[in-house]
Amino acid sequence: MPEFSPSLLKSAEVIMKSNSSLKGLKYMQSGAKRWLDTVVTFSTLPAVLPAIGLFGLLVLRQDGHYPFFKITEINPYTGKQTTILKIRSMTTNAPLEEEDFIGDSGSYAQAKRLKHDPRVTPLGHKLRRYSLDELPQLWQIFHDRSSSLVGPRYFRSGDINSISLEKDQPYAEWVERYKNGQILFGLTGLAQILGRALLSISDRLWLDLYYLDRMSFIADLKIVGLTTTAILSAKGSK
Question: Residue ranges of the domains in the chain?
Answer without folding.
Answer: 6-233
